[in-house]
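Hello, quick one for you while I still have it in my head. A protein chain has come my way and I'm curious about its shape. I'm sending you its amino acid sequence along with the backbone structure tokens. I'd be grateful if you could look everything over and explain what you see. Here's the protein in full, and shout if anything looks odd to you:
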Amino acid sequence: MADGSQKARLRMYGTKWCGDCVRSKEFLERRRVPYEWIDIGNDQEGQELVIRLNRGMRRVPTLVFPDGSVLVEPSDAELAKKLASHDELLPPR
């Protein structure tokens, strides 16, 4: 459910060829969590942000949450735990 609209509050920076990015995208989509996908292969500002957030490294996926917190290369379990503390990102039940 990649969503480039203003409603997306979670931003995921990654590349199309990254296996961890594909896995994290599928994880979010299965849970119907809206997010904005930024392909750093096509977005210079996104690439620069990833490098800055990761202290000079180009590590993806890099997920930026509404509160400014960041997860880098999270496992599904780490992502689930983080989402549990962000009810505003979860679809209504």
About this structure: The first strand starts at residue 10 and ends at 14. DSSP finds three helices and four strands in the chain. The mean pLDDT is 91. The CA atoms of residues 74 and 80 lie 9 Å apart.
